[in-house]
Amino acid sequence: MQHFLTTEHWSKPDLQQILDFAKDLKQSPIQPLLKNKSIALLFFNPSLRTRTSFEIGIEQLGGHAVVLQPGKDAWPIEFELGSVMDGEAEEHVKEVAQVLSSYCDLIAIRAFPKFVDWQKDKLDTLLNSFAQFASVPVINMETITHPCQELAHIMTLQEKLGDLQGKKYVLTWTYHPKPLNTAVANSALMIASKFGMDVTLLCPTPDYVLDEHYMQSAQNNCNQNHQNLTVTHNIEEAYTGAEIVYAKSWGALPYFGQWEKEKIIRDQYKHFIVDEKKMAMTNQGLFSHCLPLRRNVKATDAVMDADYCVAIQEAENRLHVQKSLMNSLVNHHSS
Ligand code: CP
Fold it and tell me: How far apart are the CA of 139 and the centre of ligand 1, in A?
């Protein structure tokens, strides 16, 4: 049985197959590919795009979505094996995953890190527990990576630029008043490198370099594709000649759980905002962001409203890629 937990273990041709069918679904959105299928969508954190695009996508394919928010409208869940469950949790993931598997054909999970101990969060225990105990495929709707966003991002770039091999791709850290998840940044590095781009990570200081696992994964992809992975703290160097600028904010991992200390550093880098002056250094570059985005904090109004901003197109493509993905996982699983 195949899960979609991270794109790391998916080959480029297999991902391209999902993307190619997503292009068909964009042209012919209503197809009965999930007729009589039920899908559980578990949200441990808020969402606008992910929830809406999954629910509507399932409906467009003739399936049925059940949205659950454990701890709110469903019982709080325990994930630790062998624990004495005398706290808040009313049931264990072992039962939850098996019960949902008996009702549903697919389970999708959104569960952000707890932001206290990265060594714990990086194990992605909640998602991996569902994958371990479920007997149906599991989709990651954002934990410590965001693979559905990766698919939508690449679909959008292929629509705009065609072949992505060798394109100069810049992932830039941007300021945000709160320390955010590294998931989209991890994902951006992995997918841009997998699809053969020349990748630059622009961040304020070495503290903002991403987890070594994702840096190494991106480096391996770049080596395989004969491309470079460059880390720089120099804005001009990064933007010059860029063909794609992807922005995201994240908290510095060495300060994980000590966010007041990190804020003192982060507050010095508000000038990492994506603005017209920076975009003018690019090679007529595209700009995108996974959204939600705080205007005039992460990117200016002028950038967000420019023709080169493809963030809305990327958000729309979430719908098409997820439908293609669900079809692939459910119908492969049933056959
Ligand atoms: N990009 C994204 O996943 O958006 P939501 O958090 O609104 O789902």
Answer: 15
Whole-number Å distance between alpha carbons of 53 and 35: 17
Residue located nearest, by CA, to atom 4 of ligand 1: 49
Full-prediction pTM beyond 0.90?
yes
Q: Among 3.30.1330.60, 3.40.50.1370, 3.40.50.300, 3.40.605.10, name the CATH number for the domain at 147-314.
A: 3.40.50.1370
Quick check: CB of 291 below 6 Å from ligand 1?
yes
210 and 193 Cβ atoms separated by less than 8 Å = no
**What residue owns the CA closest to ligand 1's atom 7?**
48
CATH code matching the domain that covers 12-145+317-334, chosen among 3.30.43.10, 3.40.50.1370, 3.40.50.150, 3.30.230.70: 3.40.50.1370
Q: Is 302 in the pocket of ligand 1 (CB under 6 A)?
A: no
- Is 181 touching ligand 1 by the criterion CB < 6 Å? no
The answer to whether 207 touches 254, Cβ cutoff 8 Å, is yes
Domain boundaries, the chain: 12-145+317-334, 147-314
State in Å: Cα 52 to ligand 1 middle: 9
Q: Alpha carbon 224 to chain centroid distance? A: 23
Q: How confident is the model at residue 334 (pLDDT cuts 50, 70, 90)?
A: very low
> Which residues have a Cβ under 8 Å from the Cβ of 80 and sit 6 or more positions away?
none
* Residue pLDDT, tens place only, 239-268: 999 999 999 999 999 999 999 999 999 999
